[in-house]
C-alpha cells in the first residue's frame, strides 16, 4: 500500500465497479488511504470504522440514495462530502448542499478536477493534514512540488517530481513501465515506453544512486524503490 499523506482517508461510495476501481487506484497512487463501498448502508458502516476525512459519494444508487447517505455521514463526524451525479439538475445540487454536501460534481468528470476539489476541501476543512510526508529517507511536499532525499533538496523537473513521488509512494512494489506511463504521463500518452528509462536514469543521477540500490530495476518486470 502506498504511504498515506498524513493519514488522509478517502471513502468512495458508488454502485459502479468501474468507477470504484478507477478512483481507488488513482487516489491510492496520489498517497491517500482509500476504502470503497458499493451501496449506502455499506458506506455508512464503513465510515463508522474507517473514519474518512473525505467521502466521494454517488447520488443515484439503488435503495438508499446519496442524499440519505450524506445526511447520515454528516451526523457521524466532521467529514467533507463530494457528491457525484449523472444529472445536471439544479434541484439535486441544491438538495445535496442543503443536506450538508460540501461540493458537487457531474459525471463524467476528470480525475484531475476531482483531485483539485479534494485538496480544496482539505485546505478548507482539514488544513492541519496538508503537511510534509516523510517516507524513509524521502520527504515529499506535494503542495510545493518539492522532494528531499536524506535532507538534500532535489532539483527535479515537474515530470521527474511526479515520477519519483509515484515510485516512493509505492515503495516495495514493482511498477511496470506501462503502469508508470499510465499514472505519470497519462493514459493518452502517445510516446514510447523507453521515456521511462530516460527519466529513471536522470533520477538515479540526482539521487546519487550509482549502484541502483534506491531505484532498482527488476528485470522483465519494471522498477521498485527500496527505502534506505
From TrEMBL:
GO terms for molecular function: phosphorelay response regulator activity; transcription cis-regulatory region binding. Residues 130-227 form the OmpR/PhoB-type domain. Residues 9-122 form the Response regulatory domain. The keyword Phosphoprotein applies. One of its GO terms (cellular component) is cytosol. GO terms for biological process: regulation of DNA-templated transcription. Residues 130-227 bind DNA. The keyword Transcription regulation applies. Keywords: DNA-binding, Phosphoprotein, Transcription, Transcription regulation, Two-component regulatory system. SUPFAM superfamilies: CheY-like. The modification 4-aspartylphosphate is found at residue 58. Pfam families: Response_reg, Trans_reg_C. PANTHER family: REGULATOR OF RPOS, TWO-COMPONENT RESPONSE REGULATOR ORR33. This is DNA-binding response regulator. It comes from Cohnella endophytica.
